[in-house]
């Protein structure tokens, strides 16, 4: 995309000040360097991706509990957190799916369940469409149809971010403001938002990135794309207290996943996997161990 060079350039100027102890690493992929947490072991594999500006640390509780039964891979998608893009990455569904498979190959993972949310969910669907033999289940959160998601971006994302180059420039100067504003509307009113805001701001202060403009422009470019997966089981978890998705039709996901199971979490906002972790894990266990 036209504005990608701005994100690539500014990321080269950043200095990662990030946790690489224990199970963390920076993995060089075909599309850029990716920050990864790997619980390791020989258990069934779950690959989880934070929904920016969330990062791996937002998933600590989820990872800890899932690790009892699964090998958990949690990585920050390129353009988010401490994962920086190179010139081969363009935020397209195809490149994103190839990134997932590239990372699986590097980590020597034959098959995995994918736990992706919001627009990242389309990357998971595309991966399952192209590589159905590698994906055992799709667990999505807050992912409607492409058409519904494009409508959502027009309502929820500042218009200027949708314009190439200008959007990337504005994004580069407003990452912290975008992050704080996002949590304000994405979470229920009674949620302690500092538990979400503080790790995100710390990440941005320590060399992380939140390339929202690239993500949105990539989605706009895919607005006419056709996605459909029949072979891979799928489940959509939907937080009904997500103000940003209050008018989004969650059943529209059936356009891409005709056999998708849709489960509503009535007390959750945009991050049901983090807001009601115990219920989320219970669902995963039931569907992956039967």
UniProtKB/TrEMBL annotation:
Pfam families found in the cross-reference section: Abhydrolase_1
Residue ranges of every copy of the AB hydrolase-1 domain listed in the record: 62-275
GO cellular component terms, A-Z: membrane
Superkingdom of origin: Bacteria
Bilayer-spanning residue ranges: none
Gene3D superfamilies named among the record's database cross-references: alpha/beta hydrolase (3.40.50.1820)
Protein name: Pimeloyl-ACP methyl ester carboxylesterase
Record lineage: Bacteria, Pseudomonadati, Bacteroidota, Flavobacteriia, Flavobacteriales
């Amino acid at each position: 995309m036209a504005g990608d060079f701005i994100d690539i350039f500014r990321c080269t100027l950043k200095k990662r000040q990030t946790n690489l102890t224990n199970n963390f690493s920076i993995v060089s992929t075909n599309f850029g360097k990716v920050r990864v947490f790997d619980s390791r072991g020989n258990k069934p594999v779950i690959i989880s991706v934070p929904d920016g500006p969330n990062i791996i640390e937002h998933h600590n509780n989820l990872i800890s509990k899932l690790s009892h039964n699964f090998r958990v891979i949690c990585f920050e998608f390129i353009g988010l957190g401490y994962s920086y893009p190179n010139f081969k990455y363009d935020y397209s569904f195809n490149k994103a799916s190839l990134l997932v498979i590239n990372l699986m190959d590097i980590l020597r993972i034959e098959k995995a369940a994918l736990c992706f949310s919001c627009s990242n969910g389309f990357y998971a669907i595309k991966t399952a469409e192209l590589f159905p033999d590698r994906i055992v289940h799709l667990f999505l959160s807050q992912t409607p149809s492409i058409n519904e998601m494009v409508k959502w971006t027009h309502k929820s994302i500042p218009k200027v971010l949708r314009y190439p180059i200008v959007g990337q420039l504005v994004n580069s100067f407003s990452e912290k403001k975008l992050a704080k504003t996002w949590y304000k509307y994405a979470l229920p009113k009674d949620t302690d938002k500092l538990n979400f805001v503080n790790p995100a701001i710390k990440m941005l202060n320590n060399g992380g990135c939140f390339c929202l403009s690239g993500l949105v422009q990539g989605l706009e470019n895919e607005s006419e794309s056709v996605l459909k997966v029949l072979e891979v089981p799928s489940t959509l978890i939907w937080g009904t207290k997500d103000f940003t998705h209050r008018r989004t039709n969650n059943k529209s996901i059936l356009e891409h996943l005709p056999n998708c199971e849709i489960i509503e979490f009535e007390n959750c906002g945009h991050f049901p996997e983090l807001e009601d972790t115990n219920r989320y894990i219970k669902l995963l266990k039931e569907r992956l161990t039967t």
